[in-house]
Fold each of these.
Amino acid sequence: MKIVLTNDDGIDAPGLQALAECLQGLGRIIIVAPAEPQSGVAHKVTTRSPIRVNRIQPKRFSVEGTPADCVRIALKKIASDADWLIAGINPGANLGSDVYQSGTVAAAREAAVLRCRAIAISQYVARGHEVQWNVTRYHAEPLLKMLLRQPPPPGYFWNANLPHPLDDKSEVEYAFCNLDTNPHEYNYRIEENNYIYEGAIHERPRNPGDDVDVCFGGKIAITRIALATQNLD
């Protein structure tokens, strides 16, 4: 099995290293990730200028572009025979409406567009806490192994979010659930001509049983995301 790894936090991000460690022994791993952090760029792609690709090691490439650029280059040129593409592990949740702005999720979406099975995986970070990557890795590894045994149908990809805080003394339940459609509660503070974003992910509204509620309630939230909405009758 050949697995391409990418992210939106840059090739040196600890979450990408944790992801690679989770998948050791499961197949051939090829890393194709942005040279610099690209968080929040959504599905932006580069088509009007060259994209520099640096081969750091035989199976490790840094791309001076977006997460979606990384996926296109990986699946078109570097590893066109890849069985899976996995994006993450993102330090911060990608739940509900986050999936439309997240570079992590966009990478998995682009892979699905190219008919490659894909997973986006993120770690929610609770208020006042920091990510302990060894603990995240402990819980992400069995989760990824389970999802690799359940490939989504063509036109879909998996989006998984781990709760927080976590410990490595107990197992964490998971739930397959829907995306929450509630918008974030945020506003802008105005200082002269500057509009300054103000919002907090921790108080976001949620529907019972949807992904925000599941993850904030202490379970791993797994959603199957479609590339297209259902056709109208």
Note: The first helix runs from residue 14 to 22.
Amino acid sequence: MSGDEDYKRMFHQALRIRLVEERIIDLYPSDRIQSPVHLSIGQEGAAVGVCNGLRDTDLLFGSYRGHAYYLAKGGDLKSFFAELFGRATGMAGGKAGSMHLAAPDVGFQGCSAVVASSIPHAVGAALAARRLGKDQRIVAVFGDGATEEGVFHESLNFAALHDLPVVFVCENNGYAVHAALSARQAYSISKLPAVYGIPYTRIEEGADFVAVDKEFTTAVADTTGPKFIEIMTYRSKEHVGVADDFHAGYRTDVEFRDWQAKDPLVQDTALVEEYQPAIEGEISEAVNFAETSPLPAPEDLLADVI
């Protein structure tokens, strides 16, 4: 496939994610979406670039900000909206909501609302893959704030000690909730992997899905042992919710405009115009499916609860 075809295919995937989340913004005030949402607008390039080279058999573990990775890895859109609407046809029967998405059939193993808690799950999956002799790449995706948690360091240490085939992907959007990293972290994320002897790659242009794909693929070409990839990106909306939050005083709209200048979904208006109508139609169909799906029955309340 030519570079131009690659670009168009990944552009379509990234635009689809953005338009899905923009529809969530439109729907959210109606209270039809039955859970808090952490949007990925601005961070689509990282998800599309990382997932582009992964197979269905490769496993990815996400965070509570998981919409983009669920869709980029191949999760079903109708099941996605039905889950957000709390319907029985959702991927978890309406029980998981936005922060606990999963699509195991395409290797998206799940998300967690607890910061950093899916990282050790990825390490455990990598240990299983190694012991079972499986040809699998295991990916753990987390935000910069997750590096403050003890289990993050425990996971890096264990993965390095046992030389496990796990890729740690840190989406660094510069803020942990409403605080700049300089106000929270006395360390540099870029220097942490070397402490554990883990190869480190920094991807500066997180909005550029082609660049992310190329650098990610190069970094993980050697599947032996753990890798650490830091992707510099930008969260356009508030930490949780669907609004802008420049009024909160912890960041300015200047940096937002700087990021937009690098964002192909903003700059490539010709492809947006070409792809948007069909994508919007697909989204509307999925929303209609969710709205017309049944609510879970009372007897389903404790089903699958261990």
Note: Residues 17 and 71 are 7 Å apart (CA to CA).
Amino acid sequence: MKDTAFVTGATGFVGASLVRNLLAKGLRVRALVRPDAEMRNIAGLDVEIVQGDILNETALRSGCAGARLVFHLAADYRLWVRDSKDMFAANVQGTVNVLEAAGVAGAERIVHCSSVAAIRPPRGRVPAAEDSKYAGPHEPIGPYKKSKYLAELAALDLAAKGLPVVVVNPSTPVGPMDVKPTPTGKVIVDFLNGRMPSYVETGLNLVDVRDVAEGHWLAAAKGRPGERYILGAENMTLGDILGTVSELSGLPKPAFKTPYAVAYLVGMIDTARCRVFGGDPIAPLDAVKMARHHMWYDAAKARRELGFTPGPVRLALADAVAWFRANGYAPAGQSGPGS
């Protein structure tokens, strides 16, 4: 009989890639899906659906029942929210609910998808590793990072109490099937639509979303409970990322870099406007604050202990560009050289 894996966040960007990964490995996959979820990413796949969310304990008990592996990926991922109460409920209490339900059900391994948002970013441009820790919840910038930090602390606390929880910290996934899209996917979409006249220079660690999915599997197979593993690939400046997308798409790279002080002022005014009049800011202030750091990370531990071997980010960016164009997010265009 096939082993069963229960996946929360299965319709999301990383979750859908993980579902495909697990099915290819011969596992039976059970997915927690909200009634209003966008199903395009897993449509047509041989997946058992459990309706509910991570605050619904009945649904979680049903999903975890008989599952040898549990992968918790569901999260509220937004860089700006008007009211952060729901985000903290989903990301922190939801995490506790999933991991405790998996423990009661007797799962042999529980993989919690955290984020590099829970790892203190480097000072300067030396990549941070798993031992880089925030001094407390006052340090992470914005509700999203704070909630992911607190969720990871809760996961590690449950691991210390005996649950077989392994934590993975993906960096910035890119690739196909980014249906929402994620904040990074939106940068690519805006670029392809000519909506990026300038940019604020920063640094990111990019990784193919399919490699992140494989990293989850490797964490379940080889990870040590109570440990966290960065799943990242290449550290790049935003300018270099946009240059690569320019080459792949055949579109010009923005020539102007917005000074940080100007971006901060715009972000402050734009965010205040949305708090008063509604809508979402084009330049959330928290996102501008994050851009001040080069968020570069070192995945050596995952390579060493898990056998994590991510592929070239250029290929992931090429697939992202092609997918966005093929699915109507951006006009079709002439691909650049080397795509």
Note: The chain is about 40% helix and 15% strand.
Amino acid sequence: MKIKAIIKSALYPIYERRLLRRLDLANTPNHIGVILDGNRRWSKENPSPTGDTSARRGHIAGAEKIIELLDWCEETDIKVVTLWLLSSDNFKRPSDEVQSLLGIINDAVERLRSTGRWKIRPVGSFDLLPESLQKTLKEIEASTANIEGITVNVAIGYGGRLEIIDAVRRYIAESASFGKSAAEISEALSAEKVDQYLYTAGQPDPELVIRTSGEQRLGGFLLWQSHQSEFYFCEAYWPDFRKVDFLRALRSYSLRERRLGK
């Protein structure tokens, strides 16, 4: 088994270069969404030398993978990346795990800012987050707003149905503030209007959504925006996600015929 692992580790860089060389960068997505799934299962199935299989260890390993992913995105000319770091449903987990995860996310987003390479845009329901984290995220968004580079949406406290509800509420509230009647508000409501009030307003919809860990469902991720997205489900847990897996996802995308209802 060790010999096979050594052979694989030697061959993967060659395979990566081959995949990248054959990839048509003119046909890669502008925006990808990534569901970073499998951190806890990875930790349980891959104990540390001291026997640690905690969820915290898995979440830390997952956070450390993010910058690698963004490096690969830069190399393949992707312009926008949406990372689902914490769902609104995750707040149903034990409070000690949620608090630990929020701390890890805070550190991960700070680390992204420290690179000075990417425009960080938090998306989600801030009301679910501690005030200290809300403040940090707003500061990071403001301090990276003028950076020329990939726009990185960090989805924290995010739920797709919640986003749509929030968008419609904001549309109604703003319309009512201009004195419009219920009938006028209803008459003017359209898909284009809702687009303007989403967390990702002003950005292109994702052409590709990747989910790790073998689960084949969206779980509420970018429900509105992904109506014409391609999906790629990878068996690897997020901490084990490799550049080869990423390039395979892009290759799969490039080979699909996107008719977009035409």
Note: The chain has a mean pLDDT of 92.
